[in-house]
Amino acid sequence: MTVNGAALAGAETMDVINPATGEVCTNAPQASKTQVDEAIACARSAFSQWKTTTIEERQSLVKQAARILEANIEELAQILLLEHGRPLQGCMMELQAAIQYFDDFAAMTPEVLVTEDSDVRRVEVHYEPLGVVCAIPAWNFPITLSAMKICPALVAGNTLVLRPSPTTSLTLLRIGELLRDVFPAGVFNVISGNGLGSFLTSHSGFDKISYTGSTETGKQVMAAGADSLRRMTLELGGNDAAIVLPDVDIEKVAPQIFFGAFFNSAQICVATKRLYIHADIYEPLRDALHQIAKASKMGDGSEPDTVLGPIQNQRQYRSVSALLEHAQKEGLTLLTGYQPENQEGYFIPATLVDNPPHDSRVVTEEAFGPILPLIKFDNEDDLIQQVNSSKYGLAGAIWAQDTQKAVTLAKRMDTGTVWINENLYLPASTPFGGHKQSGIGVENGMAGLLGFMQQKAIYIPK
Ligand code: NAD
Fold it and tell me: Which of 289, 338, 349, 422 is the most buried (most CB within 10 A)?
């Protein structure tokens, strides 16, 4: 682990499982609660100096960190492949996106806001760091989700303790090691371990919790922060709908829709999780998607022709398997994709569900795995009512040739993001956050950076 700019061995170790085999492949440090206290105390002590640095100095160090990650990208991608199971190309994509976040946040500067400049006074609104930030990312995109926290937190002048998800700690531990000499001691700490979530989120040493994970856990995180009114950003679950209008070119959009639903074996908060297809094109698009699912090899990510890897961890594997079994028991029609050969790993074939009822669990619940319900529609008002019936409101997508019509529909969707004829693009420039129970606050964009700061209004007499 990295604490106070130095290596810290865990009090114990925890097993790391290769999800492609289901076997223990190595181990990672398990921090004790005393070590967590130590990391927070170091971050607190480093904050008093770090907050006095200029934003330009901090941006320059974040940029320096980007170059170090870039120089080590191949090694990092191999570690990520081992612990995550995703094919190498997808691991490289994630790391490149994460490096881009480092560069983009290093170029973001909040300006002092002047709200009055009269004969009587000048009022300036300044932005100050919050203090010590606790960053808890989910396991599905551990590096980019962490970069969306590390970069703005440090640029804003906070210090940080990052606790990766226990099933994807290795790459982030290595990143902590690589960046040890970039930031002053105690500014960027990386600890790891199982069972530390609620200890961290209720710890009085933190000024802000930046959390990515499920809605259910998000509610616990929020409750844990109530006593001290800890600041928090919660990026939570989603059950994202995509709508396909009848004017699309099926051959062109089918691979794009498949990618938006099944990339990373569908373990993406903003993946398409319900696909609403206009009745006029339902059958041909369903069949095209089924062909792609059958042709997309699922297997060990280290094999070069693998398109879809395993489910990342056993808990998620069990949860997705249970949902699939329930769909089978309900008698739903399942269109199964490529059948993986290795049954020992956490593999679930890409599965399309042919026009299930609106109230079936595959439609109402977030699978966070490769099960995609295809739902036929022919009335737009009914469609929007169904799309918006979810407690979630993270993102959505519309596929259409008529972009004006798509924009009109996008405005009617109760979600924080809507893509038209693309999917999954989350640049640092643009706020990203959930409506309804998909989250509180936003990451990315200037609003995301300001989420790691507090405002101070200074009234200056003339
Ligand atoms: P999870 O909530 O079970 O766990 C996420 C993280 O929280 C892990 O690091 C876990 O160790 C930790 N944790 C567990 N219990 C905790 C507690 N009581 N207090 C504090 N931390 C605790 O989520 P998951 O199943 O691992 O991740 C999948 C979910 O994350 C999905 O719902 C997905 O949509 C969501 N997600 C959201 C986004 C987003 O940006 N909105 C991005 C990725 C994933």
Answer: 289
